[in-house]
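Human: I hope this is not a bother. Would you mind checking the protein record under this note? Thank you for your patience.
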Amino acid sequence: MSQPFDLIVIGAGAAGLFCASVAGQRGLRVALVDHWPRLAEKIRISGGGRCNFTNLSADRHERFTGEDPRFARAALRAFPPRRFVDLVRRHHIGFHEKHKGQLFCDDSAERIVAMLRDECERGRIAWYRPCRVDAVIRREPDASGRPRFELHTGAGVLATHALAIATGGLSIPKIGATDLGYRIARQFGLRVVEPRPALVPLTFEAGDQALFAGLAGVSLPVRIRAPQSPASPAFDEDLLFTHRGLSGPAVLQASTFWRPGAPLAIDLVPDDDLADALIEARSGGRAQLSSLLAARLPRRLAQRWLQQPEWSVLAARPLAEIGNRELAALAASLRDWRIVPSGTEGFRKAEVTSGGVATEALDPRTMQARAVPGLYFIGEVVDVTGWLGGYNFQWAWASGFAAGQSIGAR
């Protein structure tokens, strides 16, 4: 066995690459181990290939969830979005703000992958990839009291004083997602919050899908929330009708907070006093009900909504003959549409995994396991999940930085 490394990072994704580069540039002897043949595949495919690498509001811990949302605060404050943006600028990578603080590369996500690889090279990182990890063993501390770990890998036995687990979650298994990080956590006695697909399209029963028939491709801005979850905010995002159900940013955001059997609450005409508008139009005897709705909704959706049995009777009557209470009820159905998903598209379509290593076991300033000196967990493997729009990448950078900065030099 060779001389022990100061740090071995398992997982060459966003958090792992950044942690390794930070530690290596501090003069530590660092190795990076990953089983997948391509580097940082999730970065490469993110943001439609342009990588939404952070969000200007991603230092707000309120935009993250988990058993303890405040856990993320220390790392996000120590490494806020502007610091990663500064790094992107130093590498002369063009970027732009697309929507609500979301920052994307002007050309390709490959630029972010190349930047992280270059930062690792500056830190003289030793690469072991593709290389499987068969076992992790904790040994007695050395003569100076430093912790020791052994990794039994496809490249032989590797020794290290510190070990950072950056293996990600279960999302998108076709690019190499595994449960290795959770198994290592449990091996050392750390609790794992049950992993679930997050930022994922939702599916619906056949009866509900009948409503969506003919609406595939229709998109509109909505306000959405998961009312059974006290932690769920109301998201103002775009909703997309698909052949299988509902998707788009609105549903992806709400999916993190949705639980099986519970409804979604969707306002299809947010910031619009629809009831008053319909009643006023009735008093003036103007237009048809279908025309009034089509002025505030995509026409196909307005027509399909009025074809539902409870509203088709109204649509067949002259507007002047429809009572105020009936119009108010129609407006309420659009302002508070309750629909119960049957499930999700699962980890294969989920952008991230919620749940993971319980934060109660970790120091929020360093990401070190409190009961296991030298063992760190960073990135998606931890029970911290951000909103859609660059938040989860910022958590990867911030948690990787926290660990990389805290591990002692030789």
User: Anything to note?
Assistant: Residues 6 and 161 are 5 Å apart (CA to CA). The radius of gyration is 25 Å.
